[in-house]
Structure formats: C-alpha cells, structure tokens
Amino acid sequence: MISLYASNIITPYHLAGLNSFILSLGKDVQLEGEVFLNNEVWDKPLVGEAQLLGFPASIKVHNKDLKFSLFSLICACLLLVFRRSSKAKLFILGHSRVNLKLIAYLYEQGVIDWKTAFSTVIFDEGIGSYGGGVYRFKVFCKQASPSIMHSLAFIIVHPLNQVLLRLSFIIDHNWRLIRYTNLGGIQANELAVSNYRRYFESICEPNIQAQSKVVVLITQPLVEVGYMKEEDYWQCLRLLTEKVVNNGYQFFIKPHPIESRMRYECLEATLIDDSRPAECVLLELKPVLIFGMTSTAMINSKLILDMESYCINALFEGNEKLINVSGKDPFIRDIFNEYVNKVQSWEHLGGLLAANTEC
C-alpha cells in the first residue's frame, strides 16, 4: 500500500503534476491518502470536480485550508530532518518546495508520528517555480499586508519557506520539469516530462480531429492584474485576429480561466471553453502556430509537446508595465530563451503567417 498526501492544489497544472507522479508509481499499486484543494487564491475555482473524474477513488479529496499549531510546525521541522526517507512509501507532495505545512497538519491529525517515515516530492507550480531567490523574494513580499509587523514576519519566514525548503538534500523525488545543472545551465527532467505528457494525453478528447492551418492563442489576464491598459490589449488582439484570419487560418483562442470568456466573443475566432490545461487542447488541434504571452504553456508546448510557441509581448502598445518574466529573472530568462520563440514585430508576425501558409 502506498500513501499519498498533497495540499494547496490550486490550478490544473498542480493537478497535472500530481497525476503525473501517480502515473510513475505504476498501474497496479494500491493507493490511499488525501488531497487538499485550495480555491481562495482566485475569484472562482480553477480546479473542480470535472477535473477529478479520473482521480484514484481511494484518495479522498477535500476543499479546505490546513489548520495546525506552531508546536506542530516545529515538530514538522524535526520530522523533516529525522524521519524523511527516500525509500518510504508515504509520499508528501508540494509544488515547487517541500510541503512543511502539510507535514505539520498530518502530525497534528495523527497521520504521521515520530515512528513514521515519509518521502518528500516536489513538482512544478508554473513560471514562479523556475525563478531565482531574488525573484521569489519580491513576489513573496508583495503578499505582505501594509502592517510593518506583518511585513517583517514575511521577511523572517521567507528564508525558510522559499530557500531552505527548496534545497535538494531534503527533496527525495524531484518532479520539476526543468532542473538546473551544476554549471549553471538548464536540463529537462526527462522522466517528469514524459509522465506529464502521458497525463495530458490521457485527458485528451479522442473525438476531436486535428485540423489543418490552425493557429492557437493562449491568453493571460494582463488587464485584470494591471499590467496592460484595456484599450491597448484589445487593439492588439483585434489586429492579430485580422492578420491570422486574412491569411486563411482557423483561429482558436483559449482564454485564461479567470478571464471573462464573453469579452472575446467580439473577435473572429473560435473560443475554447475548456478548464483543462492548454497542453491538452494543443495535442488535440495540432496547430501550426502557437501564440501567447508568458504562460507556463508557452514553455511546455516545446518542452513536453515538441511544438514551437511564440511570445507576442512585443506587439502590445504601451507595454511598459507588462510583466516580462523572460527578462527580469535570469533563471526564467534562460528557460524562456531555450523553449519559447519571440515575435519581434508585426512584420515578423506577417512573415511567420505567410511562411506557414505556404507549407
């Protein structure tokens, strides 16, 4: 019997990481455990019952935050040092770092104790999991309240939460899609990549036939989070749609889950109303061109699916405030440069559309 516990599952990508690790355990293993969803980060849930239909029935799924005491958290630190074992059959999963909070919760609930050995597993959470220490520190501090004491607490907690819990010697199973080499380079984690693809293929719709001359745009909530002015965003998308359609392509748009789908109905494109990761749609449609901004799917299209993707950030007017994750952090920049192409101008876009039309 293998026991598996995971918490703070927020997005379909977290679910993909969780399922890909389960696939690695084999088909005939007996599983038990619990998974805790968390929908409080966004205005509406990004992971729902429909995405859990293929989940092992023996694993209980809860939608709640974990509650535990400071004493349990201290005990969790000690358990992590003394009871962690790569050979254990009880797995504790966390995205991007060791899930210390879940260890504390399980200790308080009596699931694990001082005699229980457990194994730690980490998987990707998206772009943020690739960033270096400075990048993560800035993101982490943005969550602090205006209170000075609260801000100080964040600064004190940060080294433990964002640095120590990412150290390789306390990680038994590294399920990150990309690893950093000792020479400062990047390397695909082939086993994780293979199992992520297996998971995406397992939830594809077999009745959808690949179509010729398809272009897919994967959007992000740039207006909603304040990185773009609304008029600049829609002006760019209208022009992009016009150029794609005029070149004879079928244009599909996959809005981000927190965006309003209705806002895109004014564009001459087919909207993909699908809560699954974008990678599933790409596998089904097999587009000749994939456009996007800075989403995880842009990296994964090449890393996992071996499909070229193109970042269109340069096409937006007034994009000074547009977050440029491919340039602000050296780790993320290296990954973006490795796996994502860039559209430099409208002329460059026209050349891409013309070249693929001829093919």
| Annotated CATH architecture of the largest domain | 3-Layer(aba) Sandwich
Reported by name, the CATH topology of the largest domain is Rossmann fold
Hey, roughly how much beta strand do the residues contain? Answer: 15-25%
Oligomer: single chain
The CATH class of the largest domain, by name, is Alpha Beta
Major β-sheet strand ordering = 3-2-1-4-5-6
What's the total number of strands? 14
Q: Stretches where pLDDT falls below 50 for ≥5 residues?
A: none
Secondary-structure content class:
alpha/beta
Portion of residues in helices?
25-40%
Give the helix tally. Answer: 12
Query: Whole-Å distance between the termini?
Result: 52 Å
Shape: elongated
Main sheet: strands, sense, barrel: 6 strands, parallel
Please tell me the overall pLDDT.
82
Element pattern in H and E: EHEEHEHEHHEEEHEHEEHEHEHHEH
Domain count: the total is: 2
Rg computed from alpha carbons, rounded to a whole number of angstroms = 21 Å
Task: Write up this protein.
- With 359 residues, the protein is of the alpha/beta class.
- It has two domains: 2-130 and 172-202, Rossmann fold; 214-358, 3-Layer(aba) Sandwich (Rossmann fold), CATH 3.40.50.
- 37% of the residues lie in helices and 17% in strands.
- The protein contains twelve helices and 14 strands.
- It has helices spanning 12-24, 70-82, 100-108, 133-141, 148-163, 190-202, 230-246, 278-285, 296-303, 325-328, 330-339, 346-358, and strands at 2-9, 31-37, 59-63, 90-95, 119-123, 173-175, 178-180, 186-188, 214-218, 250-254, 270-271, 289-292, 310-311, 341-342.
- The strands form three sheets. The protein has a six-stranded parallel β-sheet, covered by helices on one side. A six-stranded parallel β-sheet has the order 11-10-9-12-13-14, sandwiched between helices. A two-stranded antiparallel sheet has the order 7-8.
- Strand 4 (90-95), helix 3 and strand 5 (119-123) form a beta-alpha-beta unit.
- Helix 2 (70-82) packs across helix 3 and helix 4 (133-141) packs antiparallel against helix 5.
